[in-house]
Batch of 2 targets.
Target 1
Amino acid sequence: MPRDLLLVIDMQNVYCAGGAWSCPNAEKAAERIKSVIARKGKDMDVIFTRFLASPDPKGVWKDYNRENGEINRDPHANGMMEAFREELEQYPLYTKSVYSSLDIPEVREAVQKADRVIVSGVVAECCVLSTVFALIDDGRYVIYLTDGVAGLDRETEKAVETVLSGLEPLHIKKETCAEFLNEDSE
């Protein structure tokens, strides 16, 4: 059985319904991610990440911080989704100030020990996609949970899946959470 690492990327309040960067499928993705953790969490490593703006940004990140200053300063927006309260008591949460979760040393270390990295979270076309490309560049095999990832809308979620299709099957496998959960019974 392969050693799996589940990355739960940036499931923060700002992406919930009513949030400034609301992703319509974020809550549904959260439910599915929770089901993966409930069924397989004891058999794999699980890491949560969050994005917080850098206090000392460089280059265009200065513009990003200026444009998004109100959101960056909002503790509720930057907080993790309440749905993951219990899981966050069990599994580590690491912070990044760029899009890719591989920028976090603890995540990079965990990735090096994994045979496969299962990717979930938000935003499909931003932090998730950046992390997937970094994982592939690092030589990691990625399982992309299509319904465990949310984007700004369904059209962009599908666009990311289309882009990733060109990397199958060598670098990536796209699966629903149910398909991933049923792998052992195949």
Target 2
Amino acid sequence: MVIGLLQATLSIPESHSLKDKRMVLRSLKDRALNKMNVSVAEVDQQDLWQAATLAFVTVAAEKDVVEKRLAEVSEHLRSDPRAILLDYETHLL
């Protein structure tokens, strides 16, 4: 069993309130949950309007599957024009 974690730091420059931020994050999280078989949570910067840190976690029997899913998540985050992926880290356990 392999557990994969991707922690992403995002900038949301068009957000002018926590409500705007939540709308963008909800969309990002919902698409990841529906398409990529990962769990996701906002883990830091909850009170900032234009920044967020999300953690994505997945579990599989093989390392290759986990790495592929985490790569899909990072590509998904890069492709959304409403959020800028500033940094991310991946860890395998």
